Amino acid sequence: MPSRAWSDPLGEELYIGLMSGTSLDGVDGALCAFTADGRWIGVRRHAALPFEPALRAALAGLQQPGPDEIHRAALAANALAEVYAQVVQRLLEGLSPSSVRAIGTHGQTIRHRPGLFDGTGYTTQINQPALLAERCRIDVIADFRSRDVAAGGQGAPLVPPFHAAIFGNGDPALPPRAVVNIGGISNLTLLSPGKPPRGFDCGPGNALLDHWAQRHLGQPYDAQGAWSAGGQVATALLQALLSEPYFASPPPKSTGRDLFHPEWLHWHLGAQRSACAAQDVQATLCELTAAAIANDLARHAPSTRELLVCGGGALNDDLMRRLGQRLPGCCVLGTAERGLPPLQVEAAAFAWLARQHCHRQAASLPEVTGALGPRILGACYPA
Ligand SMILES: Nc1ncnc2c1ncn2[C@@H]1O[C@H](COP(=O)(O)OP(=O)(O)OP(=O)(O)O)[C@@H](O)[C@H]1O
Ligand SMILES: [Mg+2]
Question: What does the pLDDT look like over 137-176, one tens digit per residue?
Fold first, then answer.
């Protein structure tokens, strides 16, 4: 068999994962190593680039229907591929493209409306994998969600099997663990030794917090949650937000900006707006994110003793404090404490998903997404 350039002398395979999530903050990339038989070794390099304001505005403008959106989506996808290519160049510094087996790229979600078996479901990530392959000369794997939706699933979350591979604890003597990724939306993975992982989207993560901070602080986000920490939770508003039926609906379930958009917040704020200071709304939104996660743990995995937090929300000290308060019997930690920094986890998951595709291995868990069965996810754009 001819030797493959992407398998290094130690027999490792290298993959790149690229994630740009619902926060619309930018792109995280991770160069990841796996053993030849597929065991995780680790992140070799991480690189991140924020979106320029014009691209961020273009992506935000595509989150709801508007004029000329096909043209605008095509231009935004081209611009997105150029940012992805820049992240790949940073990850490759000093390495040949042929040393990487494939790039897994999520694309940017602009609609997420899965429908279970009724023919109305779809999920749309704009992406330009052909352009990325042209720029990088590496196989590009893209469009990871649509096959699961075609099989009747939610197409999300896709990360629970990766969370299980990295953070799963096979020792049945140890108590169950959970992983929560707090990006624009938050999603939870429940890991009980000896059982398949479970998982679903909890609800808003940072998306509404960012919206409110941008509007009132003029900053992309409330750094470390310093502003929300000084506010008072508005109990009536929190109850109104938590009355959203999504929170109590049973898995399989996933959500996005389609539901938890600024108008959803403004509609609930309604009459209460004049009674709430802006800082108190920020505190309430932070509490909402923590409450949704804690309520889901109480409902679906009450024996969880360790909650590992990844995504940008792990850097929000006020959010981490509120999670800790709501989960007194549970140790709340950033994933760095278990070997993988919070901002690298989701990008690394897309490296794992690319590897699964290249080895023709199913990556979806029907127990999580509700699909008819596990499926090989993604489509390949050769180098
Ligand atoms: N220092 C910080 N303090 C508070 N919040 C932070 C900090 N750094 C990042 N964040 C929050 O994290 C968000 C970015 O997180 P992340 O990149 O994980 O989300 P995402 O792009 O939506 O990803 P995904 O959809 O994969 O979960 C920012 O928009 C911000 O809200
Ligand atoms: Mg991000």
Answer: 999 999 999 999 999 999 999 999 999 999 997 777 778 9
Domain spanning 160-342: CATH 3.30.420.40: yes
- Quick one: tokens of 370? 């509700």
Q: Does domain 12-155+359-381 have CATH number 3.30.420.40?
A: yes
pLDDT digits (tens, 9 = 90+) for 300-356: 999 999 999 999 999 999 999 999 999 999 999 999 999 999 999 999 999 999 999
Tell me the per-residue pLDDT of 70-127, one tens digit each, with 9 for 90 and over.
Answer: 999 999 999 999 999 999 999 999 999 999 999 999 999 999 998 766 788 899 999 9
| Half-sphere exposure at residue 274, Cβ-oriented, CA atoms within 13 angstroms | 1
Fold match, 12-155+359-381 / 160-342: yes
| Mutational test site, ligand 1, from 180, 209, 316, max ligand atoms within 8 Å of CB | 316
Ligand 1 centroid–CA 24 distance in Å is 9
Ligand 1 mean position, distance from CA 359 (Å): 31
Write down the domain spans for the chain: 12-155+359-381, 160-342
CA distances from 82 to 87, 88, 134, 382 (A): 9, 10, 11, 17
Distance 3 CA to ligand 1 centre (A): 40
The DSSP bridge pattern shows strands 40-50 and 26-35 to be antiparallel
Ligand 1 site, residue 225, Cβ cutoff 6 A: yes
